[in-house]
Specification:
Oligomer: single chain
Shape: globular
CATH superfamily: Alpha/Beta hydrolase fold, catalytic domain
Structural class: alpha/beta
Mean pLDDT: 88
Largest sheet: 8 strands, mixed
Number of helices: 6
């Protein structure tokens, strides 16, 4: 299980959002080692949004990590992945988009912000990540929508200091509506990109995504997780477990980051 409880409030223009302490309590679905979380925030033109920093004792990189459209930084996937990555020496800075901050406050589901607000939040979060880990190489990443907005920001203008982008499920199209329009901007991204995708992901037809990644040449690496859906869950009959998939994603991400850092030396 995962237990989430309010840790602190920040007073700002948006309101007084909760920041969370996430306690991983299920040894079968979370890493053995626990790394402490530090409460932080991202300052935007219109206020502040919550953030959580997880930094191991000897990190090799910092990851600015954005959430998807349906769940925030306290979600099990985000919290669990932060712990797993920390065990591999990768610090993470998870941050909310304004709509999710409002959703946490009100307890009512909110639609995502306009793209411009999402993109500017990505830029501000990347800048804050650099501030809290100025000694580390910087990676930008996102779950679903968060990854897409990160790449849009990078396509419009390079994200200062970012040497790579990781997509935890790139949302190529709405479920059941195969299209490649959402990938049109990727050719303008000039840093390495890692696409982590499941074969059962209804938001990314691999028959479309595979050639898109191929067209990006050395800038794109596609890792396919057999049997995983958009949430990286697998069916029992697959013979695999969600734990195995999570560890697969972690190790692939860590090795990819190590490779691009080596190549950048």
């Amino acid at each position: 299980m995962i237990q989430v409880k309010p840790a602190i409030r920040l007073d700002h223009d948006i309101g007084s959002p909760f920041l969370y302490v996430v306690e991983m309590t299920d040894p079968d679905t979370s890493p053995t080692q626990r790394f402490p979380q530090q409460v932080d925030c991202v300052t935007l033109e219109w206020g502040k949004v919550s953030a959580l920093l997880v930094r191991p004792s000897k990190p090799i990189a910092m990851m600015a990590f954005s959430h998807g459209a349906g769940a925030g930084i306290e979600h099990l996937f985000m919290a669990d992945m932060a712990q797993r990555l920390a065990a591999c020496g990768i610090a993470t800075f998870r941050y909310h988009f304004p709509f999710m901050e409002s959703q946490v406050l009100s307890g009512q589901r909110k639609p995502p912000d306009r793209p411009r607000i999402l993109v500017e939040t990505v830029r501000a979060a990347v800048a804050r990540s650099r501030e809290v880990a100025a000694d580390l190489p910087l990676i930008a990443a996102g779950k679903s929508m968060g990854g897409r907005m990160t790449s849009i920001a990078a396509a419009e203008r390079p994200l200062d200091g970012v040497c790579g982008i990781v997509f935890f499920g790139f949302p190529l199209h709405p479920a059941g509506q195969s299209s490649s329009e959402r990938a049109a901007h990727l050719s303008a991204v000039k840093v390495p990109m890692l696409f982590l995708q499941g074969t059962r992901d209804r938001l990314a037809n691999l028959a479309l995504l595979d050639p898109i990644c191929a067209s990006l040449g050395d800038f794109a690496t596609l890792h396919i997780s057999d049997g995983a859906d958009h949430s990286f869950h697998v069916l029992k009959r697959s013979g695999r477990t969600n734990e195995e998939v999570a560890q697969e994603l972690t190790m692939r991400t860590a090795s990819w980051i190590a490779n691009i850092l080596d190549e950048g030396v």
